[in-house]
Amino acid sequence: MLAVPAAFVVVVLTATSASADCQEIYNPETGQFELDCSDGGGDPGGGGEEPGGGSSTCNYNGREIPCTGPMGSVWSSVHECWIGPSAEEIGDKLEPPPGQTNEDGAWRMCFFPPPGSSWEYTWVQTGEVGIDPVVLANRAIASMDLDPIKIGIVPESAPNRAGLVGLPVWMWVDSPTDDTFGPITASASEGSVSVSATASVSSIVWDMGDGTKVNCTGKGTPYADHYGKQDSPTCGHRYAKMSTDQPEGAYQVTATSHWVVEWTGGGQSGTIEFDLTTNPLPIRIGEAQVLTQ
């Protein structure tokens, strides 16, 4: 393990304990990442709750990590580590690997994410490491300012409105826009690297509040009076029970749109997927009463 200048102590990952925010920090004396649960620690990753959660979050084995690491290093999805200063900058003189010259590349510090908490020199080709294009793709997504859909549904959600058990329920995307359904395209650049990303909704999962989830592709069909009691041809449901035993006497309906983003740039391409869910919408379902004398 090679020594790291003592001036560099960098937060690289966060976790949560019962009493405080914990951070994994690089200890230059041991060359290891150590867990610090002292008060005052923040979350350098910003939470990652929104799609394209900013330029500080990258992905590693299905989890989010900061895109910057110790000593100003930059995450590389190719090497699966943060690429930092060269051996020459640290003061170490290393010979290039066989068949390579100092003009072809350099030995660079490669900081591995926890678990592992270590680093080693790795050979990096000249111009290979800059900003990760995935970071720029996430920036492009963030600039789209995407929102959940606006729910269109019959029966309508209102205190004086109710549907009936067994009658068709129609669901659709009300007044779709580029930022609620797509397609929408945006780009982001840094230095010589530019990435273009196009996002669109591939499907919508409707949670009907009665234990049923309906997966619909497309925007659905808006209901009109002339349809009468027909089923929706594209996205519908029928309730089997009244909603009187539900909280507030209504089924809580949500719609989760599944976004797919295709991006390309920096000599790479990829797909980013995420979901956006609406707030619950109360739908009341009653039962027709027949009066006899």
From TrEMBL:
Residues 1-20 form the signal peptide. It comes from the Bacteria. Residues 39-55 have a biased composition (Gly residues). It comes from Nocardioides oceani. This is ATP/GTP-binding protein. Keywords: Signal. Residues 36-57 are annotated as: Disordered.
